Amino acid sequence: MTVRVDVIYPLLEEWGFCSSCTTVLEQAGIAGTSGLEEYPPEWVEEYRRFSQLLLTLSQRFGRDVQIHVFDPRSLQGLWKSLRFRVRTYPTFIVNGRIKVVGWDVDQLYHILEGATNSAP
Fold first, then answer.
1. pTM of the predicted protein model
2. In terms of Cα–Cα distance, which of 95, 92, 67 is closest to 81?
3. Cα 44 from Cα 51, distance rounded (Å)
């Protein structure tokens, strides 16, 4: 059984071309920008920290954990924020029951290890 992790975190809005267009432009030697440079450096650093955490979770747990990211400004993200009383970001909701708030990565790993080991 796969463990579901819903993550609520305000995503920075990037602009750019579709992935196919980006590939063509890169091959043509025309570098585009993502729009991240328009944000304050501390926001970009936290966004990268968040992205790295998701990558690490994915690598560590593989197919045992299914990660869904919700921006609290989206309809689904707003609903989940209200339902789980989210006031701090990031917030991780494991299997719709266990809430891990903030950057306590050790607590998150501990909960996910327990959930993946107890799954039949």
1. 0.79
2. 92
3. 10
